[in-house]
Design a protein that fits this description.
single chain; 363 residues; alpha+beta; Hypothetical protein af1432; 2 domains; five-stranded antiparallel sheet; 16 helices; 57% helix; 7% strand; binds fe (ii) ion
Length: 363
């Protein structure tokens, strides 16, 4: 087997898939890259079949492990994990329309089904919410993120599969309980702040993204970006983070390093979506170009994902009691957010968020 050909096949497949997620199955680029993938597949069939298997964290092509590394290969592994797909078998005779249906299935939030020339082996979905009530789901979400945060702090590495699971949990919970304010959890003690805040920002970011019409993979990436936005705080000393009295300039400067540390840390991990890295870097930048970290690219260059996370971050921070300030009620937070709009936040996204809260009668 030529590793190069397998990598080429996966690159075409992933390009078709990301165009399908961004646009639709009908987009010409989906057709073009699906066609490219099928042409490469023709050269790789053995006994008229071709098998891709996900074994733990490894990808196996026919019977040989795929040793190449690269963005497309790690994205494919992530997509397969998210969908619970452990095996894909292509059979000779697979045509472009049938292949495009498969691509569309993977890009959607629906279950992927087999077709005559393409069979899909599914594992049991890890997050099973059937019959579980919402408060149990929320507690389960929090417990999961708590464990993950402790894991990251200890080993300085990220269990991306479990983080993916946690985001799936948030999306499922929001489907069951449409009032997002019942899903975001109150913090019971200051020691809980890190993971309760990470969970809440993720949930609030997903809520905004859904109101904007985002679905499937994109929604998942937004959730992950929310969950990881403050990951750089692991590199800031605990004494500074947990200080209850006023910070001096040096301590404040230490806090302000967390976006850079977070982005740098996420950049070392191959299987983290780029959106998460962008949000970690930019979530304290402001819509008018101020904020931190300061860069040469100012005004209106904050990515929409960072703008969404910034709104979620502000909302959760003000609704939470801190040693130096009482928790504010949601309508008050919305009022403050509106006052800061245009300077701090994208006005269209504030309208989207406030409108969605009103629609569910949360404010
Ligand atoms: Fe932050
Ligand atoms: Fe934050």
């Amino acid at each position: 087997m030529s590793q190069g050909k397998v990598t080429e096949l996966i690159s075409h497949l992933m390009t078709a898939l990301s165009n399908c997620s961004l646009y639709s199955e009908q987009h010409p680029l989906v057709g073009e890259f699906s066609g490219n993938a099928l042409r490469v597949a023709e050269e790789l069939y053995s006994d008229d079949t071709l098998t891709l298997t996900l074994l733990g964290d490894s990808l196996v092509f026919n019977n040989s492990p795929v040793t190449d590394k690269g963005t497309h290969i790690s994205s494919l592994k992530r997509r397969l994990k998210r969908k619970g797909i452990e095996k894909i078998v292509l059979k000779k005779g697979l045509g472009i329309e049938e292949f495009k249906k498969f691509i569309a299935g993977v890009a959607s939030t629906e279950k992927v089904v087999s077709s005559p020339h393409l069979s899909v082996g599914m594992v049991e979905v890890r997050f099973n919410s059937a019959g579980t009530d919402v408060s149990a789901l929320i507690n389960e979400n929090i417990a999961k993120v708590k464990g993950l945060c402790q894991g990251i702090a200890k080993f300085r590495r990220l269990d991306i599969v479990s983080l993916e699971d946690a985001v799936t949990g948030f999306i499922t919970t929001l489907k069951k309980e449409t009032n997002v304010l019942r899903v975001v959890s109150p913090m019971k003690s200051y020691s809980e702040y890190t993971y309760v805040h990470a969970t809440n920002v993720s949930v609030l970011a997903i809520f905004q993204a859904e109101a904007l019409g985002m679905k499937g993979e994109n929604l998942h990436d937004v959730g992950l970006a929310g969950l990881l936005h403050d990951v750089g705080k692991l590199f800031v000393s605990k004494e500074v983070l947990e200080k209850v009295t006023k910070l001096d300039l040096e301590e404040w400067n230490a806090i302000k390093t967390h976006p850079v540390f977070g982005a740098r840390y996420l950049a070392t991990l191959s299987d983290v979506p780029k959106l998460a890295l962008i949000a970690a870097f930019e979530h304290h930048m402001k819509f008018d170009g101020s904020g931190y970290p300061e860069t040469k690219r100012r005004r209106n260059h904050q990515h929409i994902i960072s703008q969404i996370v910034a709104i979620a971050d502000f909302f959760d921070a003000l609704r939470t009691e801190r040693p130096y300030r009482r928790a504010l009620e949601s309508p008050k937070v919305v009022q403050l957010m509106k006052e800061a709009t245009a300077r701090d936040f994208n006005p269209l996204l504030v309208d989207n968020f406030v409108g969605a809260l009103r629609r569910i009668k949360a404010i």
